[in-house]
Amino acid sequence: MVSVAVLGAAGGIGQSLSLLLKLNQSISRLALYDIVAIPGVATDISHINTNSTVEYYIGQARLSAALQDVDIVLIPAGIPRKPGMTRDDLFNINASIIRELVEAVADNCPSALIAIISNPVNFTVPIAAEILKARGVYNPQHLFGVTTLDAVRAARFVRDIRPNMDTSVYIPVVGGHSGNTIVPLLSFAEPQLDLGQEEIEELVHRIQYGGDEVVKAKSGAGSATLSMAYAAARFVKSLIQSFETDLVIVEPALVDLAADPQGARQIKSLGADGLAFFAVPVVLGKMGVKRIELLRGEPSVLERKGIEIAAAALKISIDKGISYVAKTS
Ligand code: NAD
Ligand code: LMR
Fold first, then answer.
1. Which residues line ligand 1 (CB under 6 A)?
2. CA-CA distance, 231 to 115, in Å (whole number)?
3. ipTM tops 0.95
4. Which of 37, 182, 183, 184 has the fewest CB atoms inside 10 Å of its own CB, making it the most exposed?
């Protein structure tokens, strides 16, 4: 049985995610942490008659207690976008929140698997890695930036133009998690997609900017919360399934390519050379990243170009994340 902590559990994502995690019968303990409003959220969820016990922790003084004996830490804490903002505009506030939370993870549950939802994911994951390194507890296999929502969107948006397509279609999405760093590899879909060039270009654009659709529709009330909670709950379910079975379970995630240098070789050869982090399809396991799932075949010209564009933008984000930690240490 698995102990899971949600940091930022009273927020838009945090509440829905905690609800979905309460429905996961493989979870034995749910530790819900926030700086506001968590007693009400946790008490409400705790009445659902599933296996897990629900505990709540409010305020920084209770953060260490929340993290005792935790196997998986999920971090959706931080501010969301408003119309007119990019994810990068969230950097200043969310970087300091991630710093505080990941330092506490390093000190209290250094062996836990860590899944970061807080944006900008392209920066917050390298920041988390640097903090864990500085505390001497970094294991690249244990750290994930949650990019599942990009794959969820890809599968759903295909269905919008091909109503007969099963929504469980597998579409690898690589790169990062914002705009042109999101690279859907439609030519690797299983089952194969039958799309014209114009349809491919429109679909790629919609997957890359799907987050903007939600920000616009919420008109100032935040960004995706419900679909994100679904995506993160799916990620956790896959992770726990991989602990419990020998099946090959794959989810996309932004990971440190050092987690599987052999698997990373392929993605680097496609235009991501010199990059430390990249979103890739990951085979999950008890150790976190078991390996990077290799792509079977060659990407299209458009996909290769997309990887190169993503790699150039990601390099800037990763460097900024690393220098943030150096400057603020
Ligand atoms: P929200 O404002 O509704 O909730 C954020 C929560 O974080 C709040 O409850 C707040 O109290 C809490 N919080 C703030 N500082 C904290 C701290 N120091 N410690 C603990 N909790 C703290 O925001 P949301 O809509 O839930 O979004 C959260 C983050 O997730 C945003 O950065 C958003 O951009 C990001 N996001 C990522 C993805 C993705 O695909 N990875 C998708 C959607 C949103
Ligand atoms: C998303 O993809 O929906 C999230 O990253 C939130 C956002 O800011 O778009």
1. 7-8, 10-14, 34-36, 76-81, 90, 94, 97, 100-101, 117-119, 121, 146, 149, 177, 222-225, 228
2. 12
3. yes
4. 37
